[in-house]
Specification:
9 strands, six-stranded mixed β-sheet, three-stranded antiparallel β-sheet, Rossmann fold, 187 residues, alpha/beta, 3 helices, globular
Length: 187
């Protein structure tokens, strides 16, 4: 069985850099939400690794919930533009401080949909934390409160991010070789 590492053109963010930055984000979020009823909402599937490490890096009480959203599907590397909720939250967010935890913000379309949907549920506050921000691809203006890393317009996998459901388990964020997906710069 070939190693997934051989499909990586280069490592963009090392395991060590991820760990350092997530600890910093956890400390910042802990300070800013101290004494508040905080709910972390993870956007599945890509955000699960980031959420786990971020939650452990936080030093305040907080609850977790999950949403599954799709706008891609299968081996697509470009969003279809049609966003669907596959799995909704289990708990009410009314009057709670909600922090959406995302793996990557690319065009902004999916996140804009999530924000619009969650605002109708009357949270006390609604903020965004993303591990990766790709501003060169932004089509919809979304305000991001906490950013792990700004990255260039390259197709990245690892640390929860996938291509065709593979590569999520890589402990770093790497650039996938373009010949494996037939393009450049997609998510």
């Amino acid at each position: 069985m070939p190693s997934l590492d051989q499909d990586i053109a280069k490592i963009l963010i090392t395991r060590e850099a991820l760990s350092r930055r997530i600890v910093e984000l956890g400390e910042t979020i802990s300070r800013e939400y101290a004494g508040k009823d905080l709910l972390l909402v993870c956007v599945l599937k890509g955000g699960f690794m980031f959420l786990g490490d971020l939650a452990r890096a936080m030093h305040i009480p907080h609850a977790l919930d999950f949403m599954a959203i799709t706008s891609y599907g299968g081996a697509r590397t470009e969003s279809s533009g049609v966003v669907r909720i596959l799995m909704d939250l289990n708990a009410s967010i009314e009057n709670r401080h909600v922090l959406i935890v995302e793996d990557i913000i690319d065009t902004g379309r999916t996140l804009a949909y999530i924000i619009e949907n969650l605002r109708t549920r009357n949270p006390a506050t609604l903020k965004i934390c993303t591990l990766l921000n790709k501003p060169a691809r932004r089509e919809v203006n979304v305000s991001v409160d906490y950013v792990g890393f700004d990255i260039p317009n390259e197709f990245v996998v690892g640390y929860g991010l996938d291509y065709n459901e593979l590569y999520r388990n890589l402990p770093f964020v790497g650039v996938l070789k373009p010949e494996l997906y037939g393009g450049e710069g997609s998510p």
